[in-house]
Structure formats: structure tokens, C-alpha cells
Amino acid sequence: MFKKLITAGMLVACAQALTATAAVGAALEEIHVTAIRGTKDARESVSAVSIVSRESLAQSQPAIITDALKGAPGVFVQQTTPGQGTAIIRGLKGSEILHLVDGMRLNNALFRNAPNQYLALIDPWIIERSDIVRGPLSSIYGSDAMGGVVHLISSRPSFTGEQWNTQSRFRVAYDSSTLGQTFNAAVASGRDGFATGASFSYQSFDDVRAADRQVQAPSGYRARAASAFTVLTDKQDRLWDLSVQFLEQPATPRYDELVPGFGQTQPASQQFLFMPNSRLFVHGSHKSAGYGRWLDALEIHLGWQQMRD
Q1: How far is CA 3 from CA 10, 11, 241, in A?
Q2: C-alpha 100: how far from its chain's center?
């Protein structure tokens, strides 16, 4: 009797195992996963998205663009050198984070898997907003986006009516701790369907003066930037955009320690200058829609970037 019970139990267990195997086999159907790029509401995104708005950028008065990213959810900004900074997302940085400017890659073969200075080669005064996506997006953007994406979008003023209108902006700032001076001037003009403009920036910072009147040297640097754009939109909502961006930091000091420590009489890190340190970016794009049943929309980007390091 005992042997019969054991045999019956084994048969029941085998039947259940075969049933479960068949169910698993039936569930393992072929699945196609396709990643696409396009405009989407941040609330509908499967990834964590943070947006640094134009108002936040204006309130932060950033010397470099990473100053505006401080405080954004999930973003840590690392800065060991004046005039430079790196965004860290999900513990990753450098070449593991994809940096975009108007949809074009800032990342290139020079990017290293460590804090670097290249994000600071973008004039913060021409940026309208920053979209930060936290988490891996390699399926859309490639291996650079293992930690996330920082997308900087340039400002494009729009005009309505047939009469020409002009917008201008001037900013002047002074920093007593570094005897720093910041100047920015921007002007844009246009009418319905057309806009053109330019921006000029200059920054000068001396060595930092601490509360005890000690001077932390060398920590001063200079930066100058210029940009221009032209946007044309026709009656069919077809858009053409051409822009040029340039920023240069002629000689920026690089070091890891401002003061000696651990019994040292001098900082241990080697000190040198980034020179030259500049970026030139030319970008042209075209966007249009309404081509019929075979093509919903068309978007073309052409860019050329030169970085000197």
C-alpha cells in the first residue's frame, strides 16, 4: 500500500512538472522590442526625467552649465577645478553619461571615464532648458548612455506678426570673493516665420580669497563665448535651423587639492593648465511633417564639432 502511494505521488508530480513546462513553453513567444526617439510627455516616460527650466537657469546665474544642474533630482555635480564640472548620474560619469546639445552628441573619442571639462565648454547663457534622464538608455542612444542623458537645448525666441520685432538682454555681475566679472549680451530679431540672433559672453575670475584673507592660487580663469542662429519656418510648418556656438577658456588651472593635507607641506597633486581649451560647433537641422501615409515626419540633423584640448 505504501509503495502504491509513493508511485501515485510521483506520477502526480511528473504530471504537474510537464504541465508547468508546457505552460512556460507556450508563454515564451517571440517578442519584438523597438526603441524610438521622439517628443513625449515626461509623465509618460518609463525613465526618471528631470527638467531644469528657463526660470531655474535664470535664478541660478550659472558661471558654467553644471552650476545649473546642482540640486536637480538624482544629479550630483563634481567639481575639483575652477571653470569645469561633471554631472554624475546613477553613480556614473564622463563617457558613461551621454551629453547632447540640441540633439547632437557632445561625447566623442576624447571623453574619458572620469570627470572631465567638456561640459563646461557650453555657454550657459544660451541654454533654454536642460532635460535629464536618469537610468540606462543604451537601446536608444548607444553605449554612452549607460547612466543617463543630459540634453541641453538652446534658446530660440519666436516672433508673431508681420512687423519686425527685436528682443535684447544684458547681464552684468560682480563677485567680490574672486573679483569676478561676468558679462552677457544677446539680441534677437524677427517676425512671423523668421528669427535670427546672436549672443556674446565674457567671464573673468581671479584667485579665490578665503575668509582668513588667504589666497587660493591658482584658481582664476577666463572664458569668452559667442553664438548665432537663424530659424526659418514656412506656412507648411517646415523648419530650418542653422546655429554656430563657440567657447574658449584660454588657460584654466587643473588640480585636485586646494590646500595641503595629511601632514604635507604642499598639495600632492600635479598642477597644470588646460590650454588651449575650446569648442566650436556648427549645427543645421530640418524638421517637417505631413508627408502622407508613408511618412509622418522627417527630421534631419547635420553637425560639425571641433574640440581643442
Answers
A1: 11, 12, 83
A2: 5
Q: Is 43 helix (H, G, I), strand (E, B) or coil?
A: helix
**Which DSSP string corresponds to 52-91?**
E-HHHHHHH--SSHHHHHTTSTTEEEE-SSTT--EEEETT
Separation between Cα atoms, residue 306 and residue 282, nearest integer Å: 9
Phi and psi dihedrals of 120, rounded to 5?
-80, -5
CA neighbor of 57 nearest in space, from 153, 119, 110, 127:
127
From the CB of residue 211, how many other CB atoms can be counted at a distance below 10 Å? 6
Where does 61-198 have alpha helices with state H? 65-69, 138-141
Alpha-helix residue ranges (DSSP H) falling in the chain: 2-27, 54-60, 65-69, 138-141
d(CA 218, CA 253): 7
E strand segments, the chain: 48-52, 75-78, 86-89, 97-101, 104-105, 127-134, 148-154, 165-175, 180-191, 194-205, 208-209, 215-216, 221-233, 239-248, 252-254, 272-274, 278-289, 297-308
Q: What is the CA radius of gyration of the chain?
A: 27
278-293 tens-digit pLDDT:
999 999 999 998 776 7
- Indicate if the pLDDT at residue 9 is higher than 60: no
DSSP-derived pairing of the beta strands 48-52 and 127-134 = antiparallel
Residue found under cell 523668421 = 194
Q: Which residues of 243-277 are buried (b: 16+ CB within 10 A; e: fewer)?
A: bbbbbbbeebbbbeebeeeeeeeeeeeeeeebeeb
How many other β-carbons are positioned within 10 Å of the β-carbon of residue 280? 15
> Model-level pTM?
0.81
